[in-house]
Amino acid sequence: MADIPLAVLLEGDYGYKVQVFDTGDTMAALAGKVVEQVAGVLVAPFPPDAILKVRLQGSDEALPDGLTIADAGFVEMESVEIYRAG
Amino acid sequence: MALLDMHEWYDLTRDTNWTPAYVAEEELFPPEFSDPFGISVEQWETFDEPYKVCYRDYVETQRDKDIGAYSVKSALARADFFKNASPHWKALLALHFSPIGFAEFHSASAFARMTRFSRAPGMRNMATFGTLDEMRHGQIQMYFAYEFIKHDRVFDWAHKSSKTENWIIISLRHALDDIEHTRDAISAAIMTNFAFEQGFTNLQFIGLSADAAKAGDHTFATMLQSIQTDEARHAQIGTPLISIMIENGRKAEAQQLVDIGFWRIWKQFSALSGISMDYYTPLEFREHSLKEFMHEWVVDQFARNIKALGLDLPWYWDYFLHDIETFHHSQQIGVYVYRATEWWRPIACVSPAERDWLEEKYPGWNDTYGKCWDVVIDNIRQGRFEKTVPEVPPLICNMCGLEVTGIAGVGRQANGRRWNATDFHLDHEGRRYHFCSEPCKWVFELEPARYQGHRSIIDRVLDGTVPPGPDGFYEYMGQSFEERGVCGYDYQWIDGYDAPRAAAAE
Amino acid sequence: MTTADDAGNLVGPVMRAGEIADAVLEAIQEESEGREVITEAHASYVRIKVADECFVRFETVGDVLGRTVTRGDIEANMPSFAGFIRTEPDGIRFVAR
After folding, report:
1. Closest-CA residue in chain B for C2?
2. CA-CA-CA-CA torsion sign (A17, A21, A26, A28)
3. Which pTM does this prediction carry?
C-alpha cells in the first residue's frame, strides 16, 4: 500500500482540500478521514447516523463503501466528493 | 520664448520609424518580440494615440501630481491616522500595499519592452510615458507603505513580497508574468493596457478611493486616484492596437488576447478588491459592494468599450457575472482560516451587522458561505481556537493560483442554487491539473506547453520542493514566525454574537 | 444597476472630487447646451455623463476658475472616463466611438 494525495470536497464546504490517503483505504475509510478533518471546522458536524458516500467529481454514482482506492483506480490527485446520501 | 502648441508639431516628431541599413528589419524587430501577427509596418504607422502627451507637458503634470499626493501625505502625517485605524483598515492597507507596489514597479519593464519592440511610433511614445508612470507607481506606493513600518512590520512586505514564494505572490506573479512579461509587445499591450488597465484598475484605484475618503484616509484616497490618472492615459495604448488588428484580419487573435487577459486579471481583482470592499472596509465606510462597483466600472463602462471597438464580450461573460457574486466570498473564508499563510493579520468581517449587509448585497449569503462561518464562529465561541484552522491544505488552481472553490452550504438553497463547488480538472501528459473555473482551464488548454511546467504551492508540497517539518512550509514562503498571520481582532469580533444571547437572557 | 446593453452611449470624465471637478462640470454644461448632463457623485469622485459626445474646453474651465487651465490640470484630476478620449488643441473630447 502507498500514499496517495487526493482532491476532496466534503458536502457543504466552500472549496476542495488536498488530503493524503493510503491506497488500501476503502471509500468508507476515505469518507471518514475527510469528515474528521473538515466537519466541525468548516462544515457543521454530521449526525451520527448520517450516511456518507464517495463519488468521483462529475458523477452521480456512489462508489461502493468497501471499494479500495487502489481498486477504484484513482489517479494521483483524483477529485472526489464526499456527500450525504441519507 | 513662445512655444508651439504640442498639436502643431506632434505628428512630425512622432514619425520615428526608419529603414535599417545595417541589420535586417526582422533582426531589429524580431516577430516573437514585436509582432507575430505579420501586420505591415505601414499599418502600424497608422497607430494614432488617442491620449496625446509630450515630454515637456508630461514632466510638468507628473510633478504637479506628485506634489499633490505627497503634500496631502505630509499634511496628514501628524494626524496619527494609521495608529488609530481599526484592524479592518490596517488589513485593507496591508492587502493593498504588499503585493501591488512592486508589481507596478515591475510593469515598467513590460512598458519598456513595448517601447523598444513596438513597430508603431505612436505606441512607443505612449509606452515611454507608461514606463515612467509605472516607476512612479512603484515608488510612491513603496514610500507611502514604508511610512507605516514604524507602527507595523507587516508593511515590510511592500518591498519583500515579490521576492518570496508565498502562495498569494505566486498567484499574482503567474498572472502578471503571463500577460505582461512573457509576450510580444502587441499581445502584452492588448492584455495589459486594455484588458487589465482599462478593465480593472478603476475598481481598486477609484472605487476603493471612495471607501478610503469615507473612512477619512485622505492620504490613501489621494494616492490611489493620483496613480489612476496615469493609468487613464497609458491604458489607451490598447484601443488603437485592437482597431489595427481588426482592420488587418486579426480580430480572432485580438479577441482571444482580451479574453485571456480579462479573465486572468479578474481572478486577481476578485480576491484583492472583493475582500477589500466587501469585507475589510468597515461597514460604515462602504460606498458600494464589489458587485456594484464591478457593474459600474466593468460590466457597464468597460464592456461598452469592448463592443464599441468591434470585439465581442468574452465567451464566458455569463459565468463571469455569476463569479462576481460568488468567488471572493469563498476566497475570504480561505484567507481567514488559513491566515498563518499570509503575512498580514486577516480579519473575518462577519459580525451580525456585516452579515446583514452581505445578505442584502448578495441574497443567499447566509445560507451558503454563512454556513461555513457558522462553524468557525461556534468554534471561537466555545474556545476551540485550534478548530478554526483546517489541518489539511486547500486545493489550488493550476492557473490562477487561488483556491478551487464554489458555493458553500448544504442541499438545495432558498435561491434555487445548490452547493456546487466544482474542480475543473484536466489530465495532460500523465499529470492531473486542477482549475477553479472553466475559463482558467480554457486558458491552459489553449497553450498547455506554456503553463504545464508551473507547479502550485500545493504541488510543491507534494513533490518535496517545500521542505518538510512544521516550519518548512512557512520558511519556504519567506515567513518567519512573526510574519505569520493571526486573527486581526484576536477573535474579539465574535463579541457581536453574544449580544443577542445576552439581551435574551435579561 | 446597468448592464452593457442598457447603459446607452453616455460618455464623459470621471473627476476627482474638488474644485477642478466642479469647474469641469460647469464647463461641460456650458458646452453641452440643450443636452442633458448627468452627474453621479461618489465619496471621492464624480462621474459626468453626456450622451454620445462630451467636450471639456480648457478655456471654459479656466474662465470658471479664473486662471489658466492646461491639459495637465485636467489629467491630474481625471482618474478615468467613460467612452473613448481624443486630445485636441483646445480641449479633451469623449466620444462613444
Report:
1. B300
2. negative
3. 0.95
